[in-house]
Amino acid sequence: MSQQEQWKSKIGFVLAAAGSAIGLGAIWKFPYVAGTGGGGAFFLIFLVFTLVLGMPLLLGEFMIGRMGQSDPIQTYSKLASNPKWNFIGKIGVFTSFVLLSFYSVVGGWIILYIIKILSGGLAGLSQDQYGQLFGEIISEPYSTILAQLAFMLITIFVVAQGVQKGIELASKVMMPALLILFIALVIRSLSLDGAMEGVKFLLVPDFSKLTSESILFALGQAFFTLSLGVSVMLTYASYLPKTQNLPQSGISIIILNVVIALLAGLAIFPGVFSFGLEPNAGPVLIFSVLPAVFSQMPFGMLFFLAFLILFLFAALTSAFSMIEIIVAAVTKNDVSKRKKTTWIIGILIFIVGIPSCLSYGLLSDAKLFDKTIFDLMDYAVSNILMPLGALLISIFVSRKIPKAELFAELKKGSNVGYAFFSICYFSLKYIVPIAIIVVFIDAAGVSDW
Ligand code: PFF
């Protein structure tokens, strides 16, 4: 049995887990799903799901991860004393693989934007031209595939270094910088003409705009942004010493994540309304609105460049966690196999991701259930596999592990009260499974699946 790797510092773990959480989900996806799903009402539901379902699940993954001190597959069989249960970990590893295959495509787009700015091709266009440019950039087959490869190579390189030197160090620098730049960006957006319309859209709920499908999306989004249901948080917690305060870490991660999603919304929607755009423009939203917002300010392109670099970092720190759990599962935490395994898995993920990459260009007509390959992968991961994983984990934690053992684990490193624990436990046992099943059934009835 090999020695489990460990985080070097308490804050290092929090930032790495926050780094996993904060990524394309909060910055790119949240604004556009909120835009399509009804703005304020969507945000409110997302917030409720995050607190009522997300927090207990996050702590659930933390507890069993640290308890098991093992990889995402063996943890389940070890804790249940029954190898049958490790299918939950296997589903998580599979989900993570599929997820990274299309996540890296968007990571590649960010790299292409960075190159575009550096070559001077992004300054001084009109808002429409930015939208058009986005369409052109993502439909070009060779450059998008190369950029996706570049994104995967960075991910592989960092994760091959191991937990402390790679993931922890990178997250410690990137996360604080991202927060500061975002605040600057929001200040700029809020000073645009008509900015208040955008703020209202995001913060004032109009429940008539909610549909069953948008509720499913809010659920998927809450799990997606917190990296839940995949055993990523479980794996990160398996590298923890017993002195880490789990509730405090979990709450910090949730707050950071919601703050970033809120800042992303506040950066985007004022621009959307100020330029007279549609909030439901979809994936193009951030890539067409932000350059327009930036281009109207002094040194705008320089700021946009800084933003893109941090955006890339945010995406990378999430990508690290996705590949990390696969590596942990395959190597069974044997450090000597880490480098080679990371390379092999990373390259495989890249290859599997190529059709998703092409689905905005060459393969744009290849559709199933009226969805492109990219959308299909995203839908399967965000709205099916992740909620399913979350459902299974909630059942496992609350029904397979004795309640007293869970509480004892949560108390290590913290003086958390029994009341707080009981609320989380109750949610894991009843509210999380019921909510997921209800939302599933409801959405199955209305969607075209
Ligand atoms: N939380 C990441 C984001 O919001 O971009 C995505 C993610 C990472 C989801 C890791 C799931 C996961 F296991």
Automatic annotation (TrEMBL):
Transmembrane parts of this sequence: 12-34, 40-59, 91-115, 145-163, 175-195, 215-239, 251-277, 297-330, 342-363, 379-397, 418-441
Organism (species): Robertmurraya kyonggiensis
Keyword Metal-binding applies: no
Pfam family, one: SNF
Subcellular location: Membrane
Top-rank taxon: Bacteria
Protein name: Sodium-dependent transporter
InterPro entries xref list: Na/ntran_symport (IPR000175), SNS_sf (IPR037272), YocR/YhdH-like (IPR047218)
Keyword terms of this UniProt record: Membrane, Transmembrane, Transmembrane helix, Transport
An annotated GO cellular component: membrane
Keyword Metal-binding (UniProt): no
SUPFAM superfamilies: SNF-like
Bilayer topology: Multi-pass membrane protein
